[in-house]
Give the backbone structure.
Amino acid sequence: MKRHPDGMGEERWSRFAAYTREECTVSRTHHDQFADDPLRNLALELVASWTIRTEQQSDLSQEEREQLMNVSSAYLEWKEQTLQEGRQEGQREGELRGRQAAAREILLQLLTHKFGPLSAQVVSQIQAITDTEKLEQLPKALFDATDLQSFLQNL
């Protein structure tokens, strides 16, 4: 009896290969529906591991090699999409942090212009603000503030 990756027997390997062929088709036609499924992601990671191990074996039939290529391409598509989503999320996060830092810096400049040099405590309070909406509203509150203490009540 021929052994397959991770000790799979012929029958189990055939069922797995048929499933992965179907998964590849589903993956290409309904990708968005299953994109966030952790079990699918885990299965693709496992398939990648099996693929690497199996590619090291030289006694594979042509059909088995074709099945591996189908599985590998589905995994690579998934991996590339996952990396792309991570990059996009990181970019959005970076842009948000950049806007927040710029808003804090502008607010500190406006406060210094209106009330003079600020204490380290006030600077720390402003630097600690992470709510983007609040950072956008504080310059408006600054126009109504008659002194620094009345402004600080808005924090």
